[in-house]
Structure formats: C-alpha cells, structure tokens
Amino acid sequence: MIRIGLLALGVCLLGALPAPALPNLTTSPTNDASQLDLDGEGTASTHIVKVADVTVSTDNASGLTLTISSGDIKQVEGQPISFQVTTVVDNASPPSNGDFSTTSGNNYTYANGAAGVESRDVYIRYTPLSLQDPGDYASLMNLSVVDN
Fold first, then answer.
1. Spatial CA neighbour of 47 closest among 90, 92, 100, 89
2. Cβ–Cβ < 8 Å for 112, 37
C-alpha cells in the first residue's frame, strides 16, 4: 500500500510541472507580395520588395532562431526567377543589395539571444530576365521558429 501511495504522489507531482512554452510565429503577407514587378519588354532591374511582416516570440532565455526558405518564383512553363531573402527590424529602412547574403535555394536564418517578442519585415531580392515570359508566377516561402 505504501508503494502505491508514493507512486500516486509522484504522478501528481509530475502532472503539476508546467509545460515548457513553445516559440511562436505569426506572419502576414504584404500587398506587394502578390504584385511583383517583372519589368518591361527588353529591360530588367533588381528589385527589393517587402513581402511579409513577421512576429516571433519565445520564453526561452537563450532566444530563438527564425528560418526562411528561398528559391524561385516560377510559372508552369517559362524561366524561373531566383530570389534571396533577408529580414530587418520592423519598420526599418529596406535592406540594400549587400544585405542579402544567403544564396537563392538556401535557408536564411536569423537568431536572437533573449526571451521576448520581436517584429521583423521580410524582404526578397530578385532580378527578372530582360524578356521574362508574361503570365502568373508563384512561389512558396517556408518559415519556422525554434528555441535556441
């Protein structure tokens, strides 16, 4: 009987421990994300466009890591347009060309070192071909957040 009582007490104590909080991620695409400029016929320039607002949070004292995929903007037929990703603090100046250090097709990562809530703006950089095929283009960006 005593062993059963101790086992029951142990289960109650374990059940009372708080579960660790998971990091949180919320995203909101911008209007520009669905209206990317593909330039005109015979011209092409590099574009840097804000495509999303992101808020990340964690209770972990070591902070968190945000990961965003990059790749191609493409249509069913035609030449894909590679894009790179970076983030800046919410409402900061847009990044410059040199701020895009992760090559297209690789994951961009941002890490902070403290608990709390942080808002960031997500930008892409892309250059269409000078004679880009007309039509509808699409791409997906995968975002994830983990505690450090």
1. 100
2. no
| Whole-angstrom distance, CA of residue 44 vs CA of residue 24 | 38
User: Which residue do the tokens 């450090």 mark?
Assistant: 148
- Please, which pLDDT band fits residue 1 given cuts at 50, 70 and 90? very low
Rounded to two decimals, the pTM is 0.84
Residue 135 to residue 128: CA distance in whole angstroms: 13
Q: Is 135 exposed, middle or buried (0-12, 13-18, 19+ CB in 10 A)?
A: exposed
What is the structure's pLDDT at 21? 65
**Contact in structure between 91 and 50 (CB atoms under 8 Å):** no
Cα separation, 94 vs 90, in Å, equals: 10
Per-residue DSSP letters for 104-138?
TTS-EEEE--SSEEEEEEEEEEE---TTPPPS--B
pLDDT for the residue numbered 43: 85
Structure tokens at 123: 């930008």
Q: What is the reported pLDDT for 39? A: 84
